[in-house]
Design goal:
Radius of gyration: 24 Å
Number of domains: 3
Largest sheet: 5 strands, mixed
Strand order of the largest sheet: 4-3-7-5-6
Structural class: alpha+beta
Helix content: 25-40%
Oligomer: single chain
Distance between the termini: 67 Å
Pfam family, one: DUF2420
Low-confidence stretches: 25-36, 224-245, 247-259
Protein name: Reduced meiotic recombination protein 1
Order of helices and strands: EEHHEEHHEEHEHH
Number of strands: 7
Length: 269
């Protein structure tokens, strides 16, 4: 068996469930440093130099082609040098986010989408990266995002893809594909429900937001539906959009760590 395709796993921490993979060929310390016996200071300098060189090589390495779809549009996650897809917008200008934590990647993708579509569709929304070929969904607010990189995901895909090709399996995807969607952030909806408890609202007030001619608009759960039974359709002009975008850009921070995302306290009188 080819040792390059072996995946060795070990627990990251006794209190965690994430596993680590080892996709490199092993060797003893003296083989990796090219030295026999060295003291701690010398070993530290050697490892620092090698780590710096390895980091530079990673950044120069051409990233894999990863296709991204959101609504009816298609993008490339990184510039993979595919001339056939030169017309597709590229989300990340370089491949730094490939090697950084997934939190960094989500931040970069959010900035791109907000610039491409405007901020309003993503206000109080969590980004979801669905990867069908791996049957996994990465969530923007996942607590484990800071422990993994997207390179981990692409490495898992590469290893399994190579084995599928070796086994002559059918319908092996040539590239990874990501389907982006959004959903209300838990903290946003939770806080909205807490605010309901501070009014005269009941379970009958809980309803989804609507804004089209066939359904009356519900601005929040505590309002009554429609005026005189007639649908109300919101009309947001460009000035309102620009003002909302400006306010959001000033207050938005990475992930769920923004001050505005603090959980509200329930007051049970």
């Amino acid at each position: 068996m080819d040792r390059e395709n072996e995946v060795q796993v070990s627990l990251v921490d006794e209190d965690e469930d994430l596993l680590e993979y080892d996709d490199s060929v092993g060797g003893n310390e003296s083989e990796r440093t090219g030295r026999g016996s060295v003291n701690d200071a010398e070993l530290g300098l050697v490892l620092d130099d090698r780590a710096r060189a390895a980091a530079e090589m990673l950044l120069k390495k051409t990233p894999p082609c990863i296709y991204v779809s959101y609504e009816d549009d298609s993008f490339l996650l990184f510039d993979c040098g595919d001339d056939g897809e030169a017309s597709m917008p590229i989300i990340c200008d370089d491949n730094v986010e490939l090697h950084a934590s997934c939190n960094g990647l989500f931040t970069a993708v959010r900035k791109f989408l907000e610039k491409y579509y405007g901020s309003l569709p993503f206000l109080s929304k969590e980004l979801l990266f669905d990867i069908p070929c791996l049957d996994i969904t990465l969530c923007e607010d996942n607590a484990y995002n800071n422990q993994i990189t997207f390179e981990d995901i692409t490495t898992i895909f590469r290893i399994l893809k190579e084995r599928s090709e070796a086994n002559s399996e059918a319908n092996v995807p040539a590239h990874m594909e990501i389907e982006i969607s959004v959903r209300p952030r838990f903290v946003s909806r939770y806080n909205a429900l807490v605010e309901l408890t501070q009014s005269t609202a009941s379970l009958g007030n809980i309803r989804p937001f609507t804004n089209d001619k066939s359904h009356p608009v519900v601005l929040d759960d505590s309002t009554t539906v429609g005026l005189g039974g007639k649908p109300v359709v919101m009309n947001i002009d460009e000035e309102d959009v620009e003002e909302a975008n400006g306010e959001h850009n000033q207050s938005h921070h990475e992930g769920a760590e923004d001050d505005s995302d603090e959980l509200l306290e329930i007051v049970d009188e």
